[in-house]
Amino acid sequence: MFASLSPITWLGLLGTPLLIAMGQVLFKMTSSTAGDFSLRGLAALAANPVLIAALALYGFGTIVWIYVLKSVPLTLAYSFMGLTFCFVPLLAQLFFGEPLTFRYALGTVLIFAGLLAING
C-alpha cells in the first residue's frame, strides 16, 4: 500500500503531525501572554497574533490531511498522528528548553515500532 504512495502523500502523512506539533508550541507561547478568563481577556486572546498563527497551522494541517485521506485509508493514515507525540517534545526542547529523557526516547522507539506494526 505505502510503496505506491506519491511523495506528496508521504509529505502529508509526515507533515500533518509536524504542523499539529508546531501549533502546540505556538499554543504554549500564547499561554504565557493569556490574561484572565473574562470577556476582555478572551477578546485580547482572540487578537493574539501567535494564537492566530497556531490556528492557521492547525487549519492548514487539516486541509493537508483531507487530501492525504483521499489516497490512504483512515485506519492506516491515522497511525501517523502518533508522530505528534515524538515531534512535540523535540520542539518543546528546542523552543522552551524542556528536557528530553530516556523515557521519551523509549516512547519514540515504541511509536515507530507501532507504525511499522500497523502499516507493515
UniProtKB/TrEMBL annotation:
Sequence ranges assigned to domain EamA in this UniProt record: 9-119
Keyword Cell division attributed: no
Compartments reported by the entry: Cell membrane
Sequence intervals crossing the membrane: 47-69, 76-96, 102-118
Membrane-topology descriptor: Multi-pass membrane protein
GO molecular function, one term: transmembrane transporter activity
tRNA processing among keywords: no
Pfam families for the chain: EamA
Keywords attached to this entry: Cell inner membrane, Cell membrane, Lipid A biosynthesis, Lipid biosynthesis, Lipid metabolism, Lipopolysaccharide biosynthesis, Membrane, Transmembrane, Transmembrane helix
Biological processes per GO annotation: lipid A biosynthetic process; lipopolysaccharide biosynthetic process
Protein species of origin: Neorhizobium galegae
Record's GO cellular component terms: plasma membrane
The protein's name in its UniProt record: Transporter
InterPro entries noted in UniProt: EamA_dom, EmrE-like, Small_drug/metabolite_transptr
SUPFAM superfamilies per record: Multidrug resistance efflux transporter EmrE (SSF103481)
Major site of localization recorded for this protein: membrane
